[in-house]
Structures are given as C-alpha cells and as structure tokens.
Amino acid sequence: MTLLNAAPRVITVGTGLLDEALRAQAVATVPVEWRPPLPGTARALERVLSDPRREAANELAVGRLVSARPHLVGVRRASEVLDAGTFLHAGPPITWERASGPMRGALIGAMVLEGLAADEHEAGEALAAGAVTLSPCHEHAAVGPMAGVVSPSMWLFEVRDDEHGGTAYCSLNEGLGKVLRYGAYGPEVLDRLRWMDRVLGPALAAALERTGPIDLRSLIAQALQMGDELHNRNRAATSLLLRELAPAVVAAAPAEAADVLRFIGGNDHFFLNAGMAAAKVSTDAARDVPGSSLVVAMARNGTDFGVQVSGLGGRWFTGPAGVPDGLYLGSYGPADANPDIGDSTITETSGLGGFAMAASPAIVRFVGGEVEDAVRATRSMYEITLTEHPAYQIPGLGFRGTPVGIDLTLVARTGLLPVVNTGIAGRVAGTGQVGAGLVEPPVEAFTDALRALADLSK
Amino acid sequence: MNGLPQAVLVRRGAYHDSVALMRVSRALSELPGVQAAMVAMATDLNVSILRELGFGVQEAGPGDLVIAVRARDTDAAVREADRRLAASSSRAHGAAGDQPPLTTRSAAARGPADLVLISTPGEYAFFEALDAVEAGLPVMIFSDGVPVESERLLKELAEARDVLVMGPDCGTAVIAGAGLGFANVLSPGPVGVVAASGTGAQQVTCLLDWAGTGVSHVLGVGGRDLSAEVGGLSTRRALRMLDDDPATELIVLVSKPPDPEVARALEAEPPRTPVVRALLGEGAPDLTQATEQALRALGRPVPEWPSWPAWRGTRPAPERIRGLYAGGTLSAEAALLAGGGDFVDFGDDAYTRGRAHPMIDPALRVEALGRAGETDVVLMDVVLGHGADPDPAASLAHAVARTPATVVIALIGTEGDPQDLHRQAAAFREAGAAVFTSNAQAARHARSLL
C-alpha cells in the first residue's frame, strides 16, 4: 500500500472548493468537469453499474470489437443470402406507411429493378399492399448506406472476420448525386444499377478470386493516416482499394476493365460500403455479451434512429431521426432535407466516422466547421467510449487510437451523444442527395436502452 | 416587502455546484442597489428559503437553477449573475481541442493519480467512486446521502482491488500532510487517526496539535462503516495501513460503538501499534478525554485547553440550551454532556440537499441565531481549516453580537489554519461569546449557565 508514502496526486470530482483547498496546499489535482447524469437515468445507472458482470462483460465485448480482423473475401448476389420476397433496408424495422420519401423512393426503384413492377405507381401500390417483406439489413448480417435497400439481384461485398469467424455484407456503392440509396429511381439510376449487375459485380467477383482476401483492417488504418475518417471521406481508402484491385480486374475482365476501374476511381465513396461491412462484422463480434452496456449498432431508416446493445440481444431502442445540420448542394436548403437515414453510423459505432474526425481535417469543409471542431469532436468521444482502437490511429493526436466502444452508461453520465457524420437525402422520393453534415442522435434511444439493461441487471 | 422590483428566473437543467452558487449569491447580494439575491438549485429546501425571502418559485425541480433578485435594476443583476455563473463554469476550457475529463474514469486514464476525492451530490457519488475503485485508486467520498447498499458494494469491490474507500460522508482526511475535505493544518507527528466521524477527528487532532503532538495520517472511513450492514471493511483496512506505516506510533480510533459482530472482527486482528479508542456515546470518555489518554499513552504532558471567557455577563436566567451545530459528532457529544436542550445538526443530509455544508455556508445558522431568545444559551461549533469558510467570524460574529441569547462557541482549529485561530477567537469573544477549543468543555460550560 503506497498511498501513505507521499503527498497524493488527487482527482477531484464535485465542488470546486475542495479542489481549491488542495491547490492552496500545493497538492497536484486533476479536476473532473462533472455534471449530473441525463434526467431520469440515475436509478438505471445505479443498477447497471452495480451489475457484477458489467466490467468484465464490457471488456470482453469491446475486446472482440477491436480485435476483429475484417477481410474482403468476395462479392455475392443478395439472392444467395436473402430469403426470396424480402427486401432489406437501413435502420430499425419500418413499414411502408411510416417510411420517409427517400426510403420509399429506393424501395420503388428496387421493385422496378427486380421486374416486380412496371413503374413507380405500380411499385408503390405493390409495396403498400405488402408484396415484399421489409426487413432491416442489420438483422441479416448486412448494412446499407442511406436507404440501404437491398433486393435479391444486387451484388454485395462479403467481409469475413478472420479473428472471430463472422461474416457481413454490404451493397456496392453507386456513386454520388442521383442514386438509389438517396431515394432516386429515374432511368439513369436504374441503368447504372443494371450495369453494376451485369458488369461490375462479375468483374469484382473474378478479381477478388485472384487477389484473395484483402485486409480491410490494415487498409482502414492506412486511410486514416491519409486523411479519411471512413464515413464522409473515403478518398484515400478508395484509392488504396483500387490499387489492390486494378491488376486483378485487368487480368480477370480485360474487356470491361477500363469501365470498371473508371467507375471505381470516379467515386470517392466506393470504399464506404466495404468499410461499413468491415465495421459491421467487427461490431457483430461484440454482440450478445450478457451484462454489457456496449452499443453494437446505431442505424436510421429515415424516420427512426435505433440503437442495439450487446447485453440486450436484437432489441431496437429508437427515437425520432433528427435532421442533419450541414452544408447543402446547389440551391437545396434545410427545407429539402429528410431526417437522418442509413446504416453508415456503423462506422461511428466501430470508432470511425465522426469519432475519427480529427484524422480528417479536410472533412470539416464538407460538413461545415473548423479544424478545431474536428479535433474537439474526436476528443469528446473518448469520454463516452470504453477504449482506444489499437490499429486505427490518428497522426494529429500523436497516433492515439480512435475512441471506440460507446458505453450507454457513459452517455447517460456525461450527457454527450455520439458525434455522427452523414450525407443528407432529399425528403421527396426520387430527389437524391441534397447535402452532408452532422446529426445528433435522439437521447431517448440511449436512455431507454439503459433502462432496459437495468431491468436485466443482476 | 419593500417596493423594489424583483425577478425570478428558472433555468431548466442548468447545473452548478452549491458552493459556486453560494459565492454567486453572496457577490450579488453585496452589489449596490441589490436588496436580496439568491441563486440556487431548486431543491425543496432552497425553494422554501426563497419563499421566506419573498420569492415565489413556480414549477421548478432539483435539476433546475433559480435566479432570484430584488434590486433597483433587476436586469443588470441577472446579467451579473449570468456573467459570474459563466466564469465559474469555464475554468477548464483551455486551448482548442482540449477536452476536460467528464468522469473519474476519464481522469484516471489520463495519467498518474493516487486518490480520488468525490463531493458530487450524494445520489451520484457512487458512479464516480466505482470508477475510482475499478481503476484501482483509493477514494474519499465527501458526499453524504449515499445509499448504504452502494457503500457496501463499493467496499466489497475495494477489498477485491486492495484499495481504501474513505466515506461516504467522510468530511476530513490527512494523507502524508495533504489535507482533504475539511482539513486543519496539522504538523507531522506520531499519531495516526482512523475516524468514522469527520468533526470528531478534527476535534482530536486540533487538541493534539495544541499539545504539540502532530499526526502521521488521518483516514476517514464514513459514519456507517462499523455498522452491521457495512461490516467495518474500511476501518480494518485503515488500521492495517497505519499499522504498517513506520511514522505511526499510536492509533486513535474515533467512532460510534461498533456493531458487536464487527467489534469481534476488529478484535480478531489487533494492530501491533497501540490503539486509543474514542468511542462516542454514553459512558465513554468524550473526545477531549480520549485525546488526553492518547497524550498520556505517548508519555507526553496534557496542557490546559485554551478558552476565552465571555466579557459580557450572562443574560437573565437562561432556561434552555439551543445547539446549532455544523458537525454531527460534535453536536451529539455536546447534547450528551449538556444533558438536554434542542440540538440541530445543520450538516445533516436534510440541510445539505442542494446547499453547501454549514462549515462553508453560514446562512442557515445565521438565521437560527436570529430566532434565539434572551433565555436561550446558544451552543455552537465553528470549525476552521482548509475547505471551511475562509472567515467564519465575518459571517457569524455579527449575528452573535446581535442575539439576546448567551452564546458559547466550540472553536475547532489549529494555530496553523488559514483563518487564524486567535483572530477568530478574539472576534467571537468581542461579539460577546465564550469560546472554547474543547467542545466538551464548551458543553459543560453551557450547562453550568442554566
């Protein structure tokens, strides 16, 4: 016991007076900037924190999250993974009736693409009549950006976790502007999807057979050091992936290679979907640890923002999706914005995106703000996360690992909500992307989950 | 009320600690043109005080901040309140990108620390204390109002992690010369103290200091530690620590009589170091006598305990004793020795919800003094040291001088304390009080006046 050997260095929490009294005696202190927890959470916090399983459960869960080794192993048609008659979508469960404009637009586009409807009216009627089953991507080991609609003919990235053996899927990225995931379904959108179906998918499948598994953990780590935060900026990661794929694409599909490489190279977000599958397979490794307060999914369907928690199985906890605050394209403005949508918050859940903003000074121009804001955002997220990522590091913070592993109890205690970077979809079906920015998750999704965890506490 | 305009604003969910709010209230009240001002969290206690001051507060809860002013220019007073509140909460905002720690967990992860001192409102202290124990850090919980189940859980975890939990409701500690919480300036010496009572430990160590005997360490354990529910886990650990400490030649254990089972557990592992017990309660030696025992055990002389008699004579026929105490143990000791009277412990949970401790905030005792009548003997403690009111005479002596009651004060402090023991004694004596450094002597004196 060394406490009595020398004057202590003291962490002070609470009234500043007692900190001042120590300083007056030349005792070194570290004051905590303490605030009361979120209203109505004190009892739930007491129960969850008192659960004897919590500390070890969180250590296990976040340990699995950060030790995952995601590899891109191939591309597959969704029909190999999906039940017939099912369309996947982003976020927590949603019905056609409650679906927002971009979600409806994407579903309509998928109906037409699959030949299940001749036009948007027929598609809308069929969807309203329940012609297809709607199910969250997250419940099928998958994620999808923005509307996240996956229909059987679409190609999916297949990512495997070499550490824990899990597999996760994500659609292929179509590019920016008028695209299905932002709710657009015009002829140029469907033409592009058909080209992806016919040309891109098979070429990637053949190329990945030649390259063998591509180490996404290593690729993401490099991209962070090249200025990506892997949610709204994927330029470096896309370039790195292209470098891996290019020779194999040329060898595997010489006739299509120029088109395929031009398509990938021309889309700064091509990597996003592979990165999301990597994040999904990592967070899935952390699921279902009894007593753990670790958040394993944050996802939005354009109407609700939902979270899932390791110790709470597959239950969703939701609140209304907020409207992002950011910069708009062209003449679009806040009135054109749909509430927050997409599974891409899986990047934040795994310690990337908004949590890694300090790695990406370039992003602040895109979402509005100053470089200091990016650094501040990342630093604040260490206050609500369980650990620092051992491989994903931020050069500007002295190669500190990104904050990773959102802990419900820390969210409730600090009142800090996860920082989320996002694209902004137009609210009217068929519009496409109107901007990009930051969005605040609804607090009740986290406090409701905390109370549910308290009900299960020992 | 008089004709000055008043303003009452409720800021939902705005939080400031009670000491910061007391300082803002005091600064506002002293501004020219301000007749009354109170800035406080809207706890039941504070709302009732606001009502007595003539301020009606509508629909506000303990999580809301109230700014109430009566002044010639209420807008200016509210602006000044906001300016001071902003200044008091911005201390940690440094360079761009700096993030102050928001939890003990975060602070503990940042670098070397040896101890965590917690003084949040009691219902939240457990969260921070758990962080400390999980990080393997000893913790002092100054906060009161922590549920006993949480205390038990913390202390069990601390056993597994081999760390000391001092408190909850641990008002004082001294570790290797550093005074934590309410802490008198004590010289280093051979006596180690383990205390389930903060003010009890302060009384003992201040008297020892007067006798020229210093302390090695003062380890608080919290008032419930020796109860059956908690099982004396911290007391046993603190005794072991002092037993292993080469600087400690004698241990003084200050506590209420322990639960019999806990007492047996204590006796099963007797320290090698001699122990003097200051057990509070009927038939036991009082704190002053226990201190004298300790001095004799060390072979040191017992001095006269200083006192300053009242210069003004006793008022006509005092009839009863009113104890207005800041220290719970001192209050209990005095009540026992005075043999009757009305004793109020203003340091109790009921008076500290959303308010600073009476050793810091004199308002409630000033008000109680104002209600004392000429047949009362007011018996009260004034506790000096780090953390306490920087000049208690400045806040209390005026009320002492004004009361028609006879006033007897137990002045708990050392000559090294920042408030200046002799200056404080002189000021209270000047105001008409009799002043004693021994609480037991003060209580006996009060009794002798009846």
Automatic annotation (TrEMBL), chain A:
Coiled coil: none annotated. InterPro entries: AllG-like (IPR009499), OXTCase_su_AllG_h-dom (IPR024033). This is DUF1116 domain-containing protein. It comes from Nonomuraea antimicrobica. The lineage of its organism: Bacteria, Bacillati, Actinomycetota, Actinomycetes, Streptosporangiales.
From TrEMBL, chain B:
Residues 85-106 are annotated as: Disordered. It holds the Pfam family Ligase_CoA. Residues 86-96 have a biased composition (Low complexity). Gene3D superfamilies: NAD(P)-binding Rossmann-like Domain (3.40.50.720), Succinyl-CoA synthetase domains (3.40.50.261). It comes from the Bacteria. Residues 324-447 form the ATP-citrate synthase/succinyl-CoA ligase C-terminal domain. This is Acyl-CoA synthetase FdrA. PANTHER family: PROTEIN FDRA, SUCCINYL-COA LIGASE SUBUNIT ALPHA. InterPro entries: NAD(P)-bd_dom_sf, SUCC_ACL_C, Succinyl-CoA_synth-like.
